[in-house]
Amino acid sequence: MSSQIYDCIVIGAGIQGSCTAYYLAKNNKKTLLLEQFVLPHSRGSSHGQTRIIRKAYEQDFYVRMMEECYTLWAELEREADVKLYRRTGLLLLGPENGRGFPIVKDTLQRNKVPIVVLKREEFSQHIPNFNLSSGDGALVDTTAGVLYADKALVAIRRLFKSHGGVIKDGEKVIGITPGPVVTVTTASGAYQAKKLVITAGPWANTLLSHTGLELPLQVTKLNVCYWQEKVPGSYDIRNRFPCFVQVESLESEHHIYGLPSNEYPGLMKVCYHIGKDTDPDGRDRQTNQDDIEILKRYITRCMPGLVPVPAVVESCLYTITPDTDFVLDRHPTYSNIVIGAGFSGHGFKFGPVIGKILYELSTEQVPSHDLAPFKISRFQAHSKSAL
Ligand SMILES: Cc1cc2nc3c(=O)[nH]c(=O)nc-3n(C[C@H](O)[C@H](O)[C@H](O)COP(=O)(O)OP(=O)(O)OC[C@H]3O[C@@H](n4cnc5c(N)ncnc54)[C@H](O)[C@@H]3O)c2cc1C
Ligand SMILES: O=C(O)[C@@H]1CCCC=N1
C-alpha cells in the first residue's frame, strides 16, 4: 500500500472523470485518476473525434448548465491552447404538433437562446440537400456546434497533470473499502484518499457493488455510422452544413442526429439515439443492426445526397437512467464517495460543468447548480442498497 493519502481518487478517465480530476488538481487537491485501460482507449463512451454541443434541450436546468459550460469550454481552450469547439449551429427538426419540437422551441425562447426559426418556403435555401418532412418545424440553435472529443480528452488530461495530478492507466479498480479514508485496490496496488469520485461510465454498477449500491442503469451499444456524400462537399463543415437533431420522424419516435462531414473526408456522421442492451465487456458479441435499418430509411427519404449504406460503422456505449437525466450525487451511505453516472448518451458537452460540480460535491462546497434532478433518491423504487 502506498503511504500517501490523496485528497481525492477519481475512478474512470472518460470525459467526466478527466474533467473532475482537472478541477480538483487545479484547486490544489492531491488527486489520483485511475483508468482500467491504457490511454487513449475506445472501449467506453467518450472516445471518437466529435460530439454535438448545444443548448437545445427541453429542460431549463440543462440550458442553464450549458450557459456556464460554454464559458468553461472556452477557458479550457485558452488554458490548453487547443481549439476544441467549432460553431456550426444545430438544426432542430420535428413535428410542429409533436411532443418534442414545440417544447424545445419554447424552452429556447424562454431562456433567450439565440435561434433562427426557418419557414418551410425558405428551408432549402438555408439547408440544401435536406428534405423537410411534411408537418415538421425547423429551427437553428445558433450557439451549437461540434466538440473535438478525442482532442478534448488529451488536452484535459494534460492540464490535469500540469496542475500536479497523477494518472495511472492500465489499472483496473478491483476493490473499494469505504471509510473516513477510502482504500481503492487495483491489481498493482492499493491507494488511499479522503474522498472518492466514481465516474466509471458503463461500469458504474460494477464499481458501486463494492459499496453496496446498485443504480437503475441500462448499458446499450450504439452503431456510430458515417455515410458517403454523393457529391463531395454537400454536407461539409467547411460549407457550413450544421449539426442536426430530428426529434421524431416517420421512421421513429426517437432522435436521429447528425454531424457534418469533418473527421473522415466526404463522410457525414448520422446516428440513431437508441441502441441494444449490452454487457460493456461483451459489446463485440452484440451485433444488432436495427438502428442502421432505421437510418437507411431516414437517409433515403430526407438526405438524398448521401449514399444510404453506411461507409464506416464504429461503436460506442450509452449508460442510461430511467428518466435519461444524470446522476450527480453523494453516495447515500458514504458521504465522502461522490458518484457521476448515467449520462444517457448526452453527457459529453456538459463535461466541464459536471467536472466542476463533482469537484464541488467532493470538497463539500455548495454546488453551483441545483442538483435536485440528479439525485439518487429519485430512483427510490429502483435502486438497491444492500446496506
Ligand atoms: C455514439 C455516441 C454519441 C454521443 N454523442 C454525444 C453528443 O453528440 N453530445 C454529447 O454531449 N454527448 C454525446 N454522447 C454521450 C457522451 O459521449 C457520454 O455521455 C460521455 O462520454 C460519458 O462519459 P463518462 O466519463 O461518464 O464515461 P466513459 O467515457 O465510459 O468513462 C468511464 C471510464 O471509466 C473507466 N473505468 C470503468 N471501470 C473502471 C475500473 N474498474 N477501474 C478503472 N477505470 C474504470 C472506463 O474504462 C472509462 O474510461 C454520445 C455517446 C455515444 C456513445
Ligand atoms: O447529446 C447530443 O447532442 C446528441 C444528439 C442527440 C441525441 C444524443 N446525443
Describe this protein's structure.
Strands 5, 6, 7, 14, 15, 16, 17, 18 and 19 form a 9-stranded mixed β-sheet that branches. The chain has helices at 15-26, 60-80, 101-110, 120-126, 149-162, 204-208, 290-302, 351-362; strands at residues 5-11, 31-34, 50-53, 85-87, 90-95, 115-118, 136-141, 145-148, 166-168, 173-177, 182-186, 189-198, 213-214, 218-228, 243-246, 256-259, 267-272, 276-277, 312-320, 327-330, 337-341, 384-385. It is globular. It is of the alpha+beta class and 387 residues long. The model has no long low-confidence stretch (mean pLDDT 96). A hairpin with a 6-residue loop joins strand 20 and strand 21. The longest helix is centred in the first third of the chain and has 21 residues, at 60-80. It has 2 domains: 5-46 and 150-216 and 323-381, FAD/NAD(P)-binding domain (3-Layer(bba) Sandwich); 90-142 and 218-320, D-Amino Acid Oxidase, subunit A, domain 2 (D-Amino Acid Oxidase, Chain A, domain 2, 2-Layer Sandwich), CATH 3.30.9.10. The site of the ligand O=C(O)[C@@H]1CCCC=N1 has 8 residues, from loops.
What's the shape? globular
- CATH topology of the largest domain: the name is FAD/NAD(P)-binding domain
Bound molecules: flavin-adenine dinucleotide, ligand LYRWXNCF
Please identify which CATH superfamily of the largest domain we are dealing with.
FAD/NAD(P)-binding domain
Summed up, the domain count is: 2
* Number of helices, counting only DSSP H or I runs of 4 residues or more: 8
List segments where confidence is low: pLDDT < 50 over at least 5 consecutive residues: none
